[in-house]
Design a protein that fits this description.
By secondary structure, this protein is mostly helical. The protein folds into three domains: 2-100 and 192-254 and 362-390, HUPs (Rossmann fold, 3-Layer(aba) Sandwich), CATH 3.40.50; 117-180, no CATH class; 274-360, Tyrosyl-Transfer RNA Synthetase (Orthogonal Bundle), CATH 1.10.240.10. 61% of the residues lie in helices and 6% in strands. It contains 17 helices and five strands. Helix 3 packs across helix 16, helix 4 crosses helix 11 (192-206) and helix 13 (276-284) runs antiparallel to helix 16. The longest helix is centred in the last third of the chain and has 29 residues, at 362-390.
Length: 394
């Protein structure tokens, strides 16, 4: 099976990247033909104003990929923007993709509202409108085939209209000050590229005739959209593309040092580039059970971020003992952190050493990804040639 996936270059990788994505990629490259790319064009969809560190971020990702075990002998490792055929296929797909498919993509509005911290106000608008919308639908003098679907459509459209009205000063202007979001930020975030990035994602996959795409559940709508675009193209111009399937895998949730999802933006991540001293500082500062104030207080491992790390990095036998002693009030949080630090360092130390060795020869790293980009370009050109013939663009 041909597997395709990419990652946006946001800087050095952390434990969340490994357990959420890279670990799965390493297993896939052992059994399948794999194409993994650094999605630098996708990075511009939300960070087009901040490109000063883009090349540094790309190099950090390249180094981390190799240090973690992605093998250029098994996988085609490359940079998206080095293969211009991605952009050409994106353009051609954009000609046949209905705008409504993109506007109804559930992650489009979620991402936009999350970026601008508008999710809560959108939910307030929807909640306040629901009864009125239901009453209106009941008054429609025609048969409504799918009440719930129509209700959700109207709530989405009305909430979006009210948010736009908010930014135009037509609804309580002081609310914008409370939200700390400007009209300029609202409109500058909602770019053509941001709306259309799932089409570029479809091009990324289909340019290599990808059959499997490893994703999390939140990305399933994008894979379904890719399948729709492939079907539409094949219907219009003849069979060129396969319909890729999502490769869903269970990934352990690894919390950040504050218990929230591990993220660079939350400043709660443990990076593979961190020194031993930095890792120790972060681990010893981790949040634990707020009710366990003293060593002999009974703990609740199931809600403790430190215990989540034990389940990943400490042996099963030791973890069972730690859990038992924590619940019984026989293990203090400081000692527990020391134990997890020891286990975590056993995992991180060889990766850190390999990373430092790879980083010393950055020229070779660039060559690996240049060669991978040339391999990818060769594949992409063959697909584009088929596409041009099918569309009578010879």
């Amino acid at each position: 099976m041909r597997v395709v996936s990419g990652m946006r270059p946001t800087g050095k990788l952390h434990l969340g990247h490994y357990f959420g994505v890279i670990k799965n990629w390493i297993e896939l490259q052992k059994k399948h033909q794999t194409f993994f790319f650094i999605a630098d064009w996708h990075a511009l969809t939300t960070a087009y104003k901040k490109t000063a560190d883009l090349q540094k971020n790309i190099e950090d990702v390249m180094v981390d990929w190799l240090a973690l075990g992605l093998d250029p002998q098994r996988s085609c490792l490359f940079i998206q923007s080095k293969v211009k055929e991605h952009a050409e296929l994106h353009l051609l797909f954009s000609m046949i993709t209905p705008k409504s498919w993109l506007e109804w993509n559930p992650t489009y509005k979620d991402m936009k509202y999350n970026l601008l911290k508008l999710q809560e106000i959108s939910l307030q608008f929807r909640g306040g409108l629901r009864d009125a919308v239901r009453e209106f639908i009941n008054m429609i003098p025609y048969k409504v085939e799918d009440f719930e679907k129509l209700e959700e459509r109207m709530l989405d459209d009305l909430a979006e209209t009210l948010i736009a009205a908010l930014f135009e000063g037509e609804i309580e202007p002081d609310l914008l000050k409370k939200l700390n979001v400007s009209k300029r930020e609202f409109y500058e975030t909602d770019t053509y590229g941001f709306l259309g990035y799932p089409v570029l994602q479809a091009a990324d996959i289909l340019i290599y005739k990808g059959e499997g795409v490893p994703v999390g559940e939140d990305q399933l709508p994008h894979i379904e959209l890719t399948r729709e675009i492939a079907r539409r193209f094949n219907y219009l111009y003849g069979e060129v593309f396969p319909e890729p399937s999502a490769l869903l895998t269970e990934t352990p949730r690894i919390p950040g040092t504050d218990g929230r999802k591990m993220s660079k933006s939350y400043n709660n991540a443990i990076f593979f580039a961190d020194s031993c001293e930095e890792v120790e500082r972060k681990v010893m500062g981790m949040f634990t059970d707020p009710q366990k104030l003293r060593k002999n207080d009974p703990g609740r491992p199931n809600i403790c971020a430190v215990f989540s790390y034990h389940k990943l990095f400490t042996t099963k036998e030791q973890t069972e003992v730690i859990e038992k002693n924590c619940i019984a009030g026989k293990l203090g949080c400081v000692e527990c952190k020391r134990k997890v630090l020891e286990s975590l360092e056993e995992f991180l130390s060889p990766i850190r050493d390999k990373r430092e060795k790879i980083k010393k020869d950055i020229k070779k790293v660039r060559e690996i990804f240049s060669e991978g980009s040339l391999r990818a370009e060769k594949e992409a050109r063959e697909t584009i040639s088929e596409v041009r013939i099918a569309m009578n663009l010879r």
